[in-house]
Amino acid sequence: MVKGRNVKWLHEDIIIDKECAERLNIGNWINDNIIGLYCKLLKERQTRTPHKFKKCHFAGSFYYTKIRSNQSVCRWETTDILKNRLAEFHKIFFPIHHGKHWSLIVIDVEHQAIQYCDSLGGRSRFALRYMHEYMKKLVTDASTWTAEIVDVPQQDNYNDCVVFLLMNIDFLSRGIQPSFNC
Q1: Sign of CA dihedral 13, 16, 20, 26
Q2: Domains in the chain, please, with CATH?
Q3: Which residues does the UniProt record annotate as the domain Ubiquitin-like protease family profile (predicted)?
Q4: Which of 41, 76, 79, 182 fits a 20 to 30 Å CA distance from 60?
């Protein structure tokens, strides 16, 4: 068990508070705060060694939920990137929370594709359609983009979706097809 109030990790902007640290103990569920911290680490890795990694943006875990429920995200950084700076990035990642399960939408700017990744084998055409429609509102040429399901490693239980989500983000942010021993 982690003791103390806050633990600094690798960089002054990445601070794990006691609640987050306890979530990393065996038997606890990993939440959206841990996903956000991991994405900050990936962003830090990308910043330190840009020649090794794709330029990616990692949207917060609530972004997709907010646009799906028609709540305003017009002032969020991700909206600015999609509207005005999309060409600066290779990929943009959107973690999606479905009650007790996590999956992933990836905007692959290089290949003009909207991709859905699910470690339980879900084929959420709805999530793809919804994100495609949202992209069409922000990006003039998004109507020509493809929407596709990406084959990713499959979990063999109902507990590890966040770990699979994070590994998929890690692999895809490096431009590598996810492949790891389960």
Answers
A1: positive
A2: 29-173 (3.40.395.10)
A3: 14-172
A4: 182
Cα 79 off chain centre by: 15
Q: Angle at CA 49, nearest 5°, toward 82 and 92?
A: 20
Please name which of 60, 56, 66 lies closest in space to residue 37, comparing C-alpha atoms. Answer: 60
Amino acid in the structure at residue 28: N
Q: Tell me the pTM.
A: 0.86
Q: What is the pLDDT of residue 30?
A: 73
Interior angle at CA 10, CA 42 and CA 23, nearest 5: 75
Which residues are known to be catalytic? Answer: 101, 118, 161
Tokens found for residue 175 = 């431009």
DSSP string, 63-81: HHHHHHTT---TTSHHHHH
